[in-house]
């Protein structure tokens, strides 16, 4: 049997995976889940990584995989000698990476962890003998919130559902969970979707339902262009069986659905904050309603919850309501009743670092939206807090911040700019929002950046006001993650409060 024929046969946990030579790129949580799965299946696994978590490195020989540590700037000879039949890459490996290019040029199959999970999804089946349905969720912003929301709605509706994927739980871990699930709610990054775009026919996913929440420039360095990023995101709709959910306020997502190759009978379901038409979810006089999943769509609507109810639990910000509409559409496609959706929303809480109020003191509200790692996300935060002192900057990932500054940034009371790419952010304010006072915080040491940010911001606010951390950029230039950035911001706020906010240094704005 040829290598290609053998790979075509590997579409079940019960297939013969023994002896299959697989090179796994990267030893993070994802890479380890791939190696662990393949060794359990009897494959011959070589893991290549430039660095490795000590725990994972110790476990690899225990599970029967080999580890090759060293630079991957060039194709390692150990990889060439191994002659893999498949390369499975962690999402951090871009299409331009030397090892990925080598595999393509050598005709070696390239998978991501999600394709492997799909191929072995029948390890644990439902009572009827079928594997769990998959719901796919992507978008430039709101993926994690919508994934958590969807899983919560499904569980309240009586389905055994689990959030997984880019949310921090590898899909392979969910697929192999002995408890089993009715539905897997899979958050997918553009990186993971690019790898799915490389799938051969037998490895393509057939999700029950899918959504792209929105689209704005992001990860342009990784993908190489905005068009390539868009094409990767569009992969989410491919082969959808029942419901393609899209954002009516974002034309790019509608076009994706129109162009997608889906299973016959799949429906396009729209959502936005306006009046819904038939086959849509939306708002009517403060009610969140469904006009898609009921018999008389032309003349009727089902109430799911109210904006007032969402306000009481801190979920009424416009972009969060959009996430709720998308999650509700996905849950309704699986038959979850409106009453279950209403109940689930009353107990749902947002993650840390997502428009999280970390303190209210001395007239100042301090808001941590460190998860706003691109301009699109930051724009939503600025709309929720007009007139805030805006803490902005970091690793821009090749994205131009000028449009954000010219549209939403002009509403800020002042801007406190952090990060190694401060110059381009300052230039954007000088050109597009010259009336907004700008204060720079030198890169310095990570441990002191947020203390200085808080001192400056507190000095700017006169009376009552809001300080909003919504960086519109990644964190890796100065912090280990967006969570680390948010935690340090919150710690600096608490330190400032503990020191006593009424002293002279705390309330005297610095010079511009």
Features:
512 residues, alpha/beta, UDP-N-acetylmuramoyl-L-alanine:D-glutamate ligase, 3 domains, nine-stranded mixed β-sheet, six-stranded mixed β-sheet, globular, disordered C terminus
How many helices? The count is: 21
User: Structural class of the helix and strand makeup?
Assistant: alpha/beta
Low-confidence stretches: 501-512
* Count of discrete domains: 3
Helix proportion range? 25-40%
Q: Give the CATH topology of the largest domain.
A: UDP-N-acetylmuramoyl-L-alanine:D-glutamate ligase
Strand order of the largest sheet: 7-8-6-9-10-11-12-13-14
What value does the Rg take, in angstroms?
Answer: 24 Å
CATH superfamily of the largest domain: Mur-like, catalytic domain
How much of the sequence lies in strands comes to 15-25%
What is the distance, rounded to the nearest whole angstrom, between the alpha carbons of the first and last residues? 72 Å
Could you tell me the number of beta strands? 20
For the residues shown, what is the average pLDDT? 93
What general form does the structure show?
Answer: globular
Summarize the main sheet: 9 strands, mixed
CATH class of the largest domain: Alpha Beta
CATH architecture of the largest domain: 3-Layer(aba) Sandwich
Subcellular location: Cytoplasm
Domain Mur ligase C-terminal: 353-469
Function: Cell wall formation. Catalyzes the addition of glutamate to the nucleotide precursor UDP-N-acetylmuramoyl-L-alanine (UMA).
Main location: cytoplasm
């Amino acid at each position: 049997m040829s290598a290609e024929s053998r790979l075509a046969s590997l579409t079940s946990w019960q297939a013969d995976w023994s002896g299959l030579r697989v090179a796994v790129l990267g030893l993070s949580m994802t890479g380890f889940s791939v190696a662990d799965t393949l060794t359990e299946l009897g494959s011959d696994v070589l893991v290549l990584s430039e660095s490795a978590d000590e725990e994972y490195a110790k476990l690899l020989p225990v599970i029967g995989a080999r580890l090759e540590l060293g630079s991957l700037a060039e194709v390692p000879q150990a990889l060439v000698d191994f002659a893999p039949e498949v390369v499975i890459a962690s999402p951090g490996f871009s299409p331009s990476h030397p090892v990925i290019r080598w595999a393509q040029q050598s005709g070696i199959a390239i998978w991501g962890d999600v394709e492997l999970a799909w191929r072995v999804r029948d390890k644990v089946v439902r009572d009827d003998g079928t594997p769990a349905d998959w719901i796919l969720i992507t978008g430039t912003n709101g993926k994690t919130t919508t994934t958590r929301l969807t899983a919560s709605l499904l569980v309240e509706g009586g389905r055994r559902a689990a959030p997984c994927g880019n949310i921090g739980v590898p899909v392979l871990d969910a697929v192999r969970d002995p408890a089993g699930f009715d539905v897997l709610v899979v958050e997918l990054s553009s990186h993971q979707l690019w790898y799915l775009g490389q799938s051969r026919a037998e490895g393509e996913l057939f999700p029950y339902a899918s959504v792209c929440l929105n689209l704005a420039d992001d990860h342009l360095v990784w993908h190489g262009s905005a068009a390539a990023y868009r094409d990767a995101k569009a992969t989410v709709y491919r082969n959808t069986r029942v419901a393609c959910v899209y954002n009516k306020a974002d034309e790019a997502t509608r076009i994706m659905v129109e162009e997608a190759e889906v299973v016959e009978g799949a429906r396009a379901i729209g959502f936005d904050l306006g009046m819904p038409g038939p086959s849509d979810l939306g708002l009517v006089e403060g009610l969140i309603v469904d006009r898609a999943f009921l018999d008389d769509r032309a003349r009727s609507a089902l109430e799911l919850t109210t904006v007032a109810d969402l306000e009481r639990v801190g979920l009424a910000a416009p972009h969060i309501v959009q996430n709720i509409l998308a999650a509700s559409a996905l849950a309704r496609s699986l038959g979850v009743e409106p009453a279950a959706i209403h109940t689930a929303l009353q107990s749902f809480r947002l993650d840390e670092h997502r428009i999280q109020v970390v303190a209210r003191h001395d007239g100042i509200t301090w808001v941590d939206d460190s998860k706003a790692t691109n301009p699109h996300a930051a724009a939503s935060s600025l709309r929720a807090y007009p007139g805030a002192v805006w803490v902005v900057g970091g690793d821009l990932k090749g994205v131009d911040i000028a449009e954000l500054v010219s549209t939403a940034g002009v509403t800020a009371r002042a801007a406190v700019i952090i990060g190694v790419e401060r110059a381009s952010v300052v230039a954007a304010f000088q050109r597009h929002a010259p009336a907004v006072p700008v204060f720079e915080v030198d890169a310095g040491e990570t441990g002191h950046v947020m203390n200085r940010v808080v001192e400056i911001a507190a000095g700017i606010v006169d009376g009552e006001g809001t300080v909003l951390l919504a960086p519109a950029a990644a964190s890796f230039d100065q912090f280990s993650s967006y969570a680390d950035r948010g935690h340090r911001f919150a710690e600096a706020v608490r330190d400032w409060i503990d020191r006593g906010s009424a002293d002279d240094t705390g309330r005297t704005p610095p010079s511009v």
